[in-house]
Prior knowledge:
Number of strands: 11
Radius of gyration: 13 Å
Shape: globular
Structural class: mainly beta
Order of helices and strands: EEEEEEEEEEE
Number of helices: 0
Distance between the termini: 37 Å
Largest sheet: 7 strands, mixed
Amino acid sequence: VQLVESGGGLVQTGGSLTLSCTASGSTLRITTMDWYRQAPGIEREWVASIIIVDGTPRYADSVKGRFSISRDNAKNTMYLQMNSVKPEDTAVYYCNALLDDLTDYWGQGTQVTVSS
């Protein structure tokens, strides 16, 4: 499975941004997809996840109520709608795909920078 993130960039505090993660390869074997983020000097942090078959989302407390995860199975694409962003949301955002045999794959990451 190959994952490609896009949509990162510079956004002002309080603004919005939508990230995308498009999967290719053995996409039918993907059971769950997640967003993680990593800021400089900080461990990678889980942000949100979605169950592919039924779209059930979960969120970290730090983003609950501000971010929304979704997927378009026809396009093999997962999204992260980021609203009311804060400077502490600044990080490289990575998508992760978990397959039915519990192997997982990572994208290359996309930088999100929130200016204050």
